[in-house]
Structure formats: structure tokens, C-alpha cells
């Protein structure tokens, strides 16, 4: 059975957008699991995703205040089928990221992160998949805003970056 996971990060509502785009909300409704890698900024967005998602995992980011930090961990861990997943907001500089994350998250198969607003998809030397979905509301230097779908089937991880319009 394939599990479909929607990856989000850096929504920054209401600073970068008044609310999540409709395409994101439709994706939340379709996903088996929704993961948010931090920088929510407002509590109502967390409430919305928790209420709509079948299953939800999230962390706080550097722009999230005390209310969000009280409700969310810095690091989330869970297992989907045979895949051990970890979620964190920030991983540091792109240079050397895979090596640092191999050391920090030994045994993890999939690491989801945010912070940069720049989509990322690599595999570390130890075989860990590192994914950053970008931002659905603040594209920064990217051509479009983005989110990411992940399909997990057994130990197989397939990721697809999706433009948000």
C-alpha cells in the first residue's frame, strides 16, 4: 500500500500570505499524512492543518513564538511503513548538510526540513533522503512557491515537487 505524504514548510501566515492557498488546502484533504517543517508564524494555521489532516506531524521554526513552541516539538519522529522519518526546521548551510545530518540523525531514512524556502532533494552518503518542500507562500529567490508530495511504498521513497499557484 502506498502512503501519500504532503510536505509543507515556511508558510509564514499571515506575514507572507493572508492564508494558505486553496491548492494547498485541497492537497491537505487528499494526503494520508501532512508534515509541516516549521515557520508557521500563526496558531490558526496549525489549528487548520490539524483539523483537516488525517494524520499530522509538525515542528516549530525560528519564526514561531511561544504558543507554537508550546504545542510543537523542535524535532518530530515517526515511521511510515518501513521508513523512519524525522522532521526539523533548520539544518544549517547547504555545504556539508548531508554529512551533518547523517551524524545528527543516524538511522533515519527520510529527513524533512525547511527554513531556506529553497526546495531540496538529495541522498546522503549513509542513504538518508533529505527533502525540503520550499514554501507555498513565499518563493523568495525561487521561480514559484512550492510544496512536495512523497509516496512511500514499503521502503521506497518517491518525491515530487509541486508548484503552488
How would you characterize the overall build of this protein?
- This protein has 165 residues and is α/β, with parallel strands linked by helices.
- The protein has one domain: 4-Layer Sandwich (Purple Acid Phosphatase, chain A, domain 2).
- The protein has helices at 22-30, 43-52, 66-71, 97-104; strands spanning 3-8, 33-36, 56-58, 75-80, 83-88, 110-112, 120-123, 129-132, 145-153, 156-164.
- The strands form two sheets. The chain has a five-stranded mixed beta sheet with strand order 3-2-1-9-10, covered by helices on one side.
- It is globular, with a radius of gyration of 14 Å.
Short description:
The chain is of the alpha/beta class.
Average of pLDDT:
97
**How many domains make up the coordinates?**
1
Q: How are strands sequenced across the largest beta sheet? A: 3-2-1-9-10
For the record, the CATH architecture stands as 4-Layer Sandwich
- Percent helix range: 10-25%
> What does the overall shape look like?
globular
CATH-defined topology: Purple Acid Phosphatase, chain A, domain 2
Cofactor: a divalent metal cation
Family: Belongs to the metallophosphoesterase superfamily. YfcE family.
Enzyme class: hydrolase
InterPro entries: Calcineurin-like_PHP_lpxH (IPR024654), Metallo-depent_PP-like (IPR029052), Phosphodiesterase_MJ0936/Vps29 (IPR000979)
Observed structural traits:
alpha/beta, Purple Acid Phosphatase, chain A, domain 2, five-stranded mixed sheet, 4 helices, 10 strands, 33% strand, Metallo-depent_PP-like
